[in-house]
Amino acid sequence: MSKIFFKAGEFAALCGVKKDTLFYYDELGILKPEIVAENGYRYYSTKQLTTFDIIQSLKEIGTPLKEIKSYMEKQNTKNFLSILKAKQIQLKKEQKRLNQIKKLLKNTIATTEHALSVNCNEVQIEYCTEEYYIVIDAPEVSYTDEKAFHMKIQEHISYCRKNYYYNEFPIGEIVLLKNLKQGLFERKYFCSKIDHKANSEYLFIKPAGTYVVLFHKGAYETLPDAYHKLKKYTEQNGYKIIGNAYEEDQLYYLSVSDPNQYLLKISIQVDK
Question: Which residues form a coiled coil (predicted)?
């Protein structure tokens, strides 16, 4: 029975790929030409179109060529289902990751655009609804201990990314009430805001209530000035501090090059 054969160029054109792709598949051993003539010309049969379709179909769902070769050596329905189910699990994880990136971009864009229109260095009173954070203990050292500082930051980022809690680029800080009362503005926690009450041992809830809010423009070294301004405003307007302070970067090293142009939102819970 006669067979129809295609030269490598013809077969490649029929499959919509370049000849180099066929040569690579030949090298890997997943699609070898049926005939190699004495002059080196390669010829493929019509039945190899089916083999090529198997390769392309599995590639489309993200199967590496090494796995495709292994499957073709032991091709059966059970192995086929195993590949599909494994790719389904991977796809769900990738979809979750992409949704997180989408949320990350949306929130960061909104924060950055809002930062361009705020009244800087002007204290305001705001009512805030309950908010949620993922936190990690900040190192009990000064900013000069860069190693401890960055190790904690990376630990926090890794945890948030692994658990899909990475909703915005900036990482904030929380100063506890007991420190505020003593005039100490040292952070207790690094934090990342999330949009739901997560089931995490690192969940921290910012209670709903009245807050004094200040968008402070300047380098981090000038933060004490911002706190003194908030404290003075609070006392002069008959309020008292009853809760923690929350620091959230609005403009920082990712969005501006000059530290003096950094913009930080500070919120402290108060009551009359």
Answer: 84-111
